[in-house]
Design brief:
single chain; about 425 residues; mainly alpha; 2 domains
Length: about 425
């Protein structure tokens, strides 16, 4: 760290390690505050969002008073992000997909269509709200289906394309969506259940041994140090190969292509090939834990380095687009998706899940469905299918069409 005076303000410059350390401290502060707040816990506000946003206000105070400023070295931010999405890809087992059957495919296609509709809503409201297309798209499927991780990744791409508030807008939209996701999911499911007099199917025999599939080779004796190294090495290799592939795609399409997308799909390939050839002893709990750490550090670092003052003129329009996303998805769940999924109890619970990961994140979907389960009863189909689709399967549809929207409305619009 170093201290110097720039334009009359004290500037604190953080090295790469110091930046990562501050991100970790803010993450711990966020967990501590969340643990003390029933409201933040109830609505599943992520700890890095809490800590990061608090620091944003500190940065904002320094900017407004002209007294101090921060300069961060965020070299590790992108690797943290790529590592997280790589672990998501490593969680994508074909064996899991087979267990969901036709209903999984239907739900997956519904989620994919929702992501397309969200992008159309964004670009449709762009002229009404006065938002530029990149910022409007960040309030679409990128932050709604993709969550904070995707919002940060695409936001960074937009910053590189000349839209400085990209990361900030993405974080704001994802946060708004997350809050709405857990506010509306349970009530909508309750409405569907009460209105249609639905009850759980007690004869359900669906095999839900997801844990057994994910246990893989790690279901036996404790992992050796070499097993741990092999799992970590697999993550790093997938990141390296995937980011290289993303670079080739960037050149091919003539615009920035998020590095994490290539890493995630390479990881999906490695996971399923490893299940066939058993190259190494895969451990889902280990990989999932690493991914959780990487995501939290990435979000904490991304949010703490945002400049809140860049967002002031955009909060209103971004919130309006997000509100439109919420209203449209509620209507779709009540009048379309519920019927497509079978108009039964499982369908109602899955609608709660759709609102959770369609506006916020997969954990939000689990929270919504758990609240419904605790009051009305279990839906094994919902608890198996929704996490699989929300965690990784929807990306197969949402990512390519989002890239197409960016290519058409942003790259073409800016003349790149």
């Amino acid at each position: 760290m170093s201290f110097e005076t720039v334009n009359g303000a004290l500037q604190l410059s953080f090295t790469m390690v110091a930046t990562a350390a501050l991100a970790a401290v803010l993450l711990l502060i966020g967990f501590w505050i969340k643990g003390k707040s029933g409201v933040l816990t109830k609505y599943c506000i992520p700890a890095p969002v809490i800590g990061g946003f608090l620091f944003m206000f500190v940065t904002f105070a320094g900017h407004q008073t002209g007294a101090f400023a921060f300069k961060f070295t965020t070299t590790l931010q992108s690797p943290f992000m790529d590592a997280f999405f790589t672990t998501v890809g490593l969680g994508a087992s074909i064996a899991l997909l087979r267990k969901g059957g036709l209903l999984l495919v239907i739900y997956w296609l519904c989620a994919g269509v929702v992501s397309i509709i969200q992008n159309f809503i964004s670009v449709g409201l762009a002229s009404v709200t006065g938002l530029e297309y990149p910022y409007a798209l960040l309030a679409g499927a990128i932050s709604m289906i993709g969550g904070h991780g995707a919002a940060g990744a695409y936001g960074k791409t937009f910053v590189e394309m000349g839209y400085p508030a990209g990361v900030t807008v993405g974080a704001a939209a994802a946060t708004f969506g997350l809050i709405f996701a857990v506010l509306v999911g349970g009530p909508v499911a309750r409405l569907l259940i009460e209105r249609n007099h639905l009850t759980p199917d007690t004869s359900e025999t669906l095999d839900t041994s997801v844990e057994e599939i994910n246990a893989g080779d790690s279901g036996g004796p404790k992992l050796s140090p070499l097993d741990v190294i092999r799992n970590v090495a697999a993550i790093l290799v997938c990141m390296a190969v995937g980011t290289q592939i993303s670079g080739w795609i960037s050149k091919l399409i003539g615009m920035g292509f998020p590095t994490y997308v290539g890493a995630m799909f390479v990881a999906m390939l490695v996971r399923n090939l490893n299940e066939k050839f058993h190259w190494y002893r895969f451990s889902f709990p280990l990989v999932d834990g690493i991914g959780d750490v990487m995501l939290n550090l990435y979000l904490s670092m991304a949010l703490m380095s945002l400049n809140l003052y860049q967002l002031l003129d955009l909060v209103g329009p971004v919130l309006l687009v997000v509100a439109a996303q919420v209203v449209i998805l509620i209507l779709l769940c009540c009048f379309v998706i519920f019927r497509i999924l079978g108009s039964n109890y499982d369908a109602a619970v899955m609608c709660a899940g759709m609102l959770g990961h369609g506006l916020g994140a997969t954990p939000s979907a689990i929270v919504n469905m758990t609240a419904v389960k605790d009051r009305y009863g279990m839906s094994r189909k919902a608890f198996m299918i929704v996490p699989i689709v929300g965690a990784f399967l929807v990306d197969i549809i949402y990512q390519p069409q989002t890239i197409a929207f960016i290519k058409f409305f942003v790259s073409g619009f800016t003349g790149q």
